[in-house]
Design brief:
The protein has 316 residues and is mainly beta. The protein has a single domain (11-308), classed as monomeric porin ompg (Porin). The protein is 6% helix and 52% strand. It has helices spanning 15-18, 120-124, 299-308, and strands at residues 29-38, 46-57, 62-73, 78-89, 91-94, 97-112, 139-152, 156-163, 182-193, 203-214, 217-228, 231-239, 253-264, 267-276, 287-296. A 14-stranded antiparallel barrel has the order 1-2-3-4-6-7-8-9-10-11-12-13-14-15. The longest helix has 10 residues, at 299-308. The protein is globular. The two termini are 31 Å apart.
Length: 316
C-alpha cells in the first residue's frame, strides 16, 4: 500500500496535527475545526475533517491536547477515523527561549465499505455478483504513536515530528501492510513591520516552511503570510520541482495556495484554495479548506502570559 497521510494547507490552523509539541502553545485553551475537500471534480475525492482541543497547564509547564479526525476517500468507501491524546512539556532554556518535547498516542479505525466499490467481475456479469461477499476484512483497529519537539523564541520557531512510530499493521485483508513512518520539519520567522500606529494595527510578515516525508514520497510547502489585525492573507507553493521527480517526465509540482482569514474577537476564520499545477491541472477543481479556531483565556492572565511566552508562527 503506497499512500500518505491526509494533509492541510492551513496547517497552522491545526498545529497539534502537525506536531504534538504545539499542544498548549496557546495562552490558555484553544478549540479548532478544519474541513478539507480535495479535488472535488474527480470521482472519489478526498474529504477530511479535523477537530482539536488543547490547553496550557501553567502550574505544570505542560500542554495537553486531543484530536479527532475523519478522512474519506473513493466515494466514501475507504474511511479513516482516529482519536489521539497528546502531552508536551515546556522547558525555558533562557528568558523567552523555549523547547517543548512531546508524545502522542491514538486509537485508529481503518475501514472499507465493499458495497460501494465496483469489481471487475461485477462489470462482466452485469453487476449482480458482489465480489466483496468473499472478502473477510472490512475494518481494522490499531494503536498509533508519535513524538515531536518544538523550539521557539519571540521571532522564530523550528519543529520536528515523527508519526507512526510503531508502524501499525493497517491491512484490511490477510497479510501485512505496515503504515510507514512520517517525518516532518517545519519552521519560520516573523518580521514585524513598524508603523506609527503599530499599537492599534500591528502588522507583520511571517515566512514559513513545512517539509514532510513518508516512505519514498516527500514534499515541501513554502510561503509567507501578511498579518494586519484583524485580517490575514498568505500565498504558498507546494512541491519539490528542482530536487526530485518520482518518475521521468513527472515534475514534483503540486499546487499554489491562496489563503485569507479574519479575526472576530477570539475567533479566527480562515479559507484557502489550492490551485493544482501538476498534470492534473484542469481536472481537479482544486482544493478547498475552511478553518475555525477559538481561543479562550482569562483576560487577567492573557496579558501577562502573552508577554512571557508566545509562539510566533502564523495563525492559519
Amino acid at each position: 500500500m503506497s499512500a500518505q497521510d491526509a494533509h492541510f494547507t492551513q496547517f497552522y490552523a491545526t498545529p497539534t496535527y502537525l506536531n504534538p509539541a504545539f499542544a498548549g502553545t496557546t495562552l490558555q485553551t484553544r478549540f479548532g475545526a478544519i474541513y478539507r475537500d480535495q479535488w472535488p471534480s474527480i470521482p472519489g475525492s478526498f474529504v477530511t475533517y479535523n477537530f482539536a482541543f488543547d490547553h496550557y497547564l501553567s502550574d505544570l509547564n505542560s500542554g495537553v491536547g486531543l484530536i479527532m479526525m475523519h478522512d474519506r476517500a473513493g466515494s466514501g468507501a475507504l474511511r479513516y477515523t482516529s482519536v489521539t491524546g497528546q502531552y508536551a512539556y515546556e522547558i525555558e532554556l533562557k528568558r523567552k527561549v523555549f523547547i517543548r518535547p512531546a508524545l502522542q498516542i491514538g486509537w485508529v479505525s481503518h475501514a472499507v465499505d465493499y458495497s460501494r466499490l465496483v469489481f471487475g467481475d461485477q462489470l462482466v456479469r452485469g453487476g449482480d455478483v458482489a465480489t466483496y461477499e468473499n472478502l473477510d476484512g472490512r475494518s481494522v483497529n490499531y494503536t498509533n504513536m508519535g513524538t515531536g519537539v518544538l523550539f521557539f523564541t519571540p521571532r522564530m520557531w523550528l519543529g520536528m515530528a515523527l508519526d507512526h512510530l510503531n508502524e501499525p499493521n493497517q491491512s484490511l485483508l490477510s497479510g501485512e501492510s505496515r503504515l510507514p513512518r512520517k517525518f516532518s520539519m517545519h519552521g519560520g520567522y516573523r518580521f514585524n513591520i513598524r508603523t506609527a500606529v503599530i499599537k492599534d494595527h500591528p502588522q507583520s510578515v511571517v515566512a514559513a516552511f513545512n517539509y514532510r516525508a513518508q516512505e519514498k514520497y516527500d514534499q515541501l510547502d513554502l510561503g509567507a503570510y501578511y498579518e494586519r489585525e484583524p485580517f490575514f492573507a498568505g500565498l504558498w507553493y507546494r512541491g519539490l520541482p528542482l530536487l526530485k521527480a518520482y518518475q521521468p517526465g513527472y515534475q514534483n509540482n503540486d499546487a499554489i495556495a491562496i489563503l485569507a482569514g479574519v479575526m472576530v474577537n477570539d475567533l479566527r476564520i480562515g479559507y484557502s484554495y489550492d490551485l493544482t499545477i501538476s498534470r492534473l491541472a484542469g481536472y481537479t477543481a482544486g482544493s478547498h479548506e475552511v478553518s475555525l479556531v477559538y481561543e479562550l483565556a482569562d483576560r487577567r492572565k492573557k496579558k501577562a502570559m502573552s508577554k512571557r511566552r508566545v509562539v510566533p508562527c502564523a495563525k492559519f
